[in-house]
Amino acid sequence: MDRELLGRRDELQRDPYPHYERARQADGLTYLDELDAWLVARDADVREVLRRPEDFSSANALIPDVLPSPAALAVLGGGFGGRPVVVTSDGARHQELRAPIVRGLSPARVAGVLPYAAGRAAELVEGFAEDGEVELMSAYAGKLPGDVIGRIVGLDPEDVPGVVHGGHRAEELLFRPLEEAEQVAAAEDVVAMQHTLDRYVRERHAAPREDLCTELVGAVAGPGDLTLEHRHELVAHLQNLLIAGHLTTTALIGTTVLHLLRHREQWELLCAEPARIAAAVEEAARYDSALQGFRWVTTGPVTVAGTELPPGATVFVAFGGANRDAARHPRPDAFDITRAPGRHLAFGVGVHGCPGSQLAREQLRLTLEELTRRLPGLRLADDRPVEMRPTMIHRSPYRLRLTW
Q1: C-alpha angle 285/5/88, rounded to 5°?
Q2: Domain 3-403 = CATH 1.10.630.10
């Protein structure tokens, strides 16, 4: 990809909303070179694609934006994974892989982890409440989700930071241009994470416990021998689950606090009326979705919004675009926690709807309860402009410096 196109992609990823608006106003679908895909940005069109899994394959949902260098690929060859996961599978295989995750993130399992999550949220806020300032992404948003999903999966607390770090490095390696030396360093971090997860796979196969890791091992390997192929497949599932479980929620926490504080009257209303927190969670998820969208591929000739697509055509299904569609959401560009909750697509819909959506919502609820109660004077640091990370899958601030 040439430098000019890279620059345009960076600009789009930092603020995709003007591109969505132009695509919604155009006839049919719009092809964007920056995404190398047809952009699907209207609510009705996004829902149509998501409800036609037989016509749109998710096999390319995690295709990287950047191909790692041969040196980085050589390092990755010493790790595990590289197998299809739930988000890149279709049909019966998708349902087979999804079932243990849905069970593992059931309402009962989420309810069971909430006391821990609430205690951890309070502990993290207590750690900086007397300081008068904080960088929220590193001190809070980047910690709580990893601790919570790690507990559900069954990770020991001392292993969580390394696994979270490995997830961040995997995203950097595959979705950001890095110099070769940094690619190699990122690949080494990813492989270290994969070996940690492989250790858990082997331990849970030998001695099952009441955790999601054990459920996944049982679903893939069964009671028989644990083969090398089983280990590769299970590490791939665990890596994908953990990244989805912490990076997405980290991003959602960051963008939610950012927009509440940018709209000061909304923050003050929330502090005065905490009963609005549930509505604020939904509005934040709609207004600036952490997961902006995925790529799907047509399995045959199809027509969407009057645009005829051949087999093998790539579409970028923009949840973030659908969530700013005035046909579904009046005043879509207004951030308004008093809005009547609508059916947004921040967590997808249909067979690929996010099974961890309730867990993410609960963590955001706990966060807002804690921050509004403990730090009602919270403000954005005046001297620290907020820069958004250039990504379409975990949209969030790089850093969020706050004062009070």
Answers
A1: 50
A2: yes
**Position 10 pLDDT exceeds 90:** no
Residue entry with tokens 């689950």 = 241
The one-letter code for the residue type at 97 is L
Q: How many CA atoms lie within 13 A of 328 on its CB side?
A: 22
In terms of Cβ atoms closer than 10 Å to its own Cβ (0-12, 13-18, 19+), residue 129 is middle
DSSP structural state of residue 275: G
Per-residue pLDDT band at 4 (split at 50, 70, 90): confident
pLDDT band at 61 (very low <50, low <70, confident <90, very high): confident
Q: Longest C-alpha distance within the chain, in Å? A: 60
The predicted structure's pLDDT at residue 138: 96
> Which of 59-63, 170-174, 212-216 reaches the highest mean pLDDT?
212-216
Vertex 108 angle, CA 216 and 234, to 5°: 10
Distance CA 400, CA 98 (A): 34
Say how far apart CA 2 and CA 12 lie, in whole Å: 15
- Spatial contact of 273 and 288, defined as CB atoms under 8 Å apart: no
Q: What angle do CA 219, 222, 224 make, to 5 degrees?
A: 160
What are 93-150's pLDDT values in tens digits? 888 888 989 988 999 999 999 999 999 999 999 999 999 999 999 999 999 999 999 9
Q: Which tokens sit at 42?
A: 């209207």
Sequence letter at residue 164: V
Domain boundaries, the chain: 3-403
Quote the pLDDT of residue 1: 58
Which phi and psi (to 5°) does residue 57 adopt? -90, 145
- Let me know: does 294 contact 61? Beta carbons within 8 Å: yes
The pLDDT tens digits for 194-210 are: 999 999 999 999 999 99
Q: What is the DSSP string of 117-169?
A: HHHHHHHHHHTTTTTSEEEHIIIIITTHHHHHHHHHHT--GGGHHHHHHHHHH
* Helical ranges in 132-263 per DSSP H: 136, 144-153, 160-175, 180-206, 212-221, 228-262
Q: Go through the chain and tell me how many residues it has.
A: 404
Q: What radius of gyration do the chain's Cα atoms show?
A: 21
